Amino acid sequence: RKIRGQLVFPSLIFTAACFIAPAPSFLAPMLSGEGSADLTAYLVQALSPLGVALGLLLCYVLVQRRAARSWASLPPGAAPPRPTVFDHLLMKIPVVKRVQRWKNLGEFASLLGNLTGAGVGIFEALDLCAKSVSNGLYRRDILAIKAGVQKGDPMHVALPGGFRWPIEVRA
After folding, report:
1. Fewer beta carbons under 10 A from the terminal one: N or C of the chain?
2. Residue 114 clears pLDDT 60, i.e. is over it
3. Is 66 in contact with 129 (CB distance < 8 Å)?
C-alpha cells in the first residue's frame, strides 16, 4: 500500500501532462479563427503516451510472472535460473529500482519470519524465500546468504551489503 500510495501522485502528473502537452495545437485553430479544432487528433496525441506506458507496464507484469513461474516450478535442489537482463535493467531505473527493492525485501522478510516462526528450518526457509522473490538478483543474493549460513556464518554476516540490502536489514 505504501508503494502504491507513493506512485499515485506521479501517475496523476504524468496523465495530466499527457493531456496538457497537445492542448496548444488543439486550441490554436480555434483561437486564431482559422477553423475548428480536431478532437480526434487531440485525443490520439494525448492518449498515445498513456498507451505506451500501459504497454510497458503490461510487458513488465508478464515477464515478472513468467520468471516467477519458471523458477517456482523447478524441482527442489535444482540450480536457480540466472538473473536476466530484465532483472538488471529494473535495478538501474531510479524509481523502479526502489520499488523492486521494497517489494523483494518485503517478500523476503515477511516470508522468512513466517516460516521460521512456524518452525521451518532456516535452510529450507531461505530456499522458499529465494523462490518467492521476483527479481533474479535478489534470488541470487538469498541463495548466497544460504551458502554463507551453511558455512556457519551468522545471518547478518552472510547478508550482502550495498543498495539492495540496506543497513536496516543487515542489522
Report:
1. N
2. yes
3. no
Range 81-89 contact pairs with CB under 8 angstroms and sequence separation of 24 or more? 81/136, 82/136, 82/140, 83/135, 83/136, 83/137, 83/139, 83/140, 84/136, 87/135, 87/136, 87/137, 88/137
Long-range CB contacts for residues 24-27, cutoff 8 Å, separation at least 24: none
DSSP state of 165: S
pTM: 0.60
Note whether 82 and 136 are within 8 A (CB). yes
- Alpha-carbon span 57 to 83, nearest angstrom: 20
Tracing cell 535442489 back to the chain, one arrives at 77
Amino acid 146: pLDDT: 92
pLDDT in tens, 51-89: 777 777 777 777 766 766 666 676 766 666 778 788 888
Segment 16-25 long-range contacts (CB within 8 Å, at least 24 positions apart): 18/46, 18/47, 18/49, 18/50, 19/46, 21/45, 21/46, 22/46
The stretch 148-167 carries a mean pLDDT of 85
